[in-house]
Design goal:
Blueprint: E1 9-10, H1 16-25, H2 32-41, H3 56-65, E2 66-67, E3 71-78, E4 85-91, E5 96-104, E6 107-111, E7 115-117, H4 126-130, E8 132-135, H5 138-152, E9 159-162, H6 172-182, E10 195-199, H7 203-211, E11 217-221, H8 227-233, H9 242-256, E12 260-266, H10 274-285, E13 289-295, H11 307-310, H12 316-327, E14 332-335, H13 349-360
Parallel strand pairs: 1-2, 6-9, 9-10, 10-11, 11-12, 12-13, 13-14
Antiparallel strand pairs: 3-4, 4-5, 5-6, 7-8
Helix pairs in contact: 1-2, 5-6, 7-9
């Protein structure tokens, strides 16, 4: 008889010490926990039968009570324009989430999702069209990395960024839990210096993340240096002001001794003016930072309403002019290439389509 996965404990939701405790409760030795952890994260095991240095009886007990896999790969889209790849996953409750691999010279960055949909309703974001369904578990966040690594090899992914569907600091439990595993000394696949958490700005949680001492990198989805404009395109700014968010970002930089990244999606006539350049320069020079300029990928095909339907991308020439203006003020600037536009590489677009189809059926 096939085991009911819904009644099993997701092993990837547990830290190493918790796995060790569970193994002891099963009547096994504590050191078996490290063996299980090593099989999962360093050998990418997807079944307990692969864990050959565990006793057969223990493997059977684990298979009866625990699950190793929380997601299924439904689709992989490969861009003909670049090596960008989009993964569509299905959760055990049939929800759809995405991860995107972004290649860039000597690195391959995996964009992780932390929620099914997103509650923030940023006007330029495809995930906002989907709305919010639920938080992802630690295991579901981890498994995005594990399943992609399984397909391409564990050395393929060099960088992780929590910048897919959802707001990582709203799903604080899932984000912290997954960081705990990704940065474990027993996880040999990743360095914490290659992990970035991107947030729209939740001051209290930014400070709490700093105090957790993971010392991963922090990226702030800034997108406007002005309170009123930011509130229009990012409604979260009405609850957590830019001033308070920047105070928290300064705290994060001081405590962790890391450089902050300001994410800045260029929107024609909204945040690409001379006054925007001057204000962004002032913000950036106040702490160790760099600016990541992102060309706006239109979401018109998702039939948005209101301000979202009116947004237009800043031209390539004006983006370069804006970037040069920052560089003239000794600001480190990166302009992201528009990769994967043929597969709608911005997170949420494919999942939104399939989620909407699910709800209509």
């Amino acid at each position: 008889m096939k085991n009911d996965l819904s009644k099993k404990t997701e092993l990837k939701n547990l830290t190493l010490s918790e796995i060790e405790d569970h193994l002891v409760e099963l009547g096994s030795q504590k050191f078996r926990g490290k063996q299980v952890f090593n099989w999962m994260y360093n050998n990418l095991a997807t079944s307990f039968d692969e864990m050959q240095n565990l006793p057969k009886e223990l493997r059977a007990d684990l298979d009866e009570k625990y699950s190793l896999k929380t997601l299924e790969v439904l689709e992989v889209q490969n861009s003909a324009e670049s090596n960008t790849r989009k993964f569509l996953f299905e959760t055990s409750d049939k929800r759809k989430i995405e991860s995107v691999i972004i290649p860039d010279k000597d690195r391959n960055t995996l964009c992780l999702s932390t929620q099914v949909g997103c509650p923030l309703d940023c006007k330029f974001c495809a995930t906002g069209v989907l709305g919010f369904k639920r938080n992802l578990t630690v295991g579901e966040i981890i498994d995005q990395y594990m399943l992609v690594s399984k397909e391409f090899g564990k050395e393929y992914i060099t960088n992780l960024v929590y910048m897919g569907m959802g707001e990582p600091l709203i799903n604080f439990k899932g984000t912290i839990g997954s960081l705990n595993i990704f940065t474990s000394e027993f996880n040999k696949s990743l360095s914490r210096t290659r992990i970035t958490v991107s947030t729209s700005g939740i001051p209290g949680k930014i400070k709490e993340l700093a105090d957790n001492n993971f010392r991963v990198k922090l990226a702030l989805s800034l997108h406007s240096p002005f309170e009123d404009i930011r509130s229009k395109i990012m409604p979260i700014n009405r609850k957590y002001s830019l001033k308070d968010t920047l105070d928290a970002v300064h705290y994060y930089s001081r405590v962790t001794k890391t450089r902050i990244t300001f994410e800045y999606t260029m929107l024609k006539g909204i945040n690409d003016r001379q006054e925007d350049l001057e204000a962004l320069t002032k913000i950036s020079r106040a702490l160790p930072s760099k600016v990541n300029i992102i060309p706006f990928n239109s979401i018109a095909h998702m039939v948005p309403t209101g301000l979202s339907a009116e947004l237009e991308p800043t031209s390539s020439a004006d983006i370069e002019k804006f970037a040069d203006g920052l560089r003239d003020n000794n600001i480190t600037v990166m302009v992201r290439d528009t990769q994967g536009s043929d597969i709608a590489a911005a997170c949420g677009q494919l999942a939104a389509k399939t989620e909407n189809n699910l709800e209509q059926n």
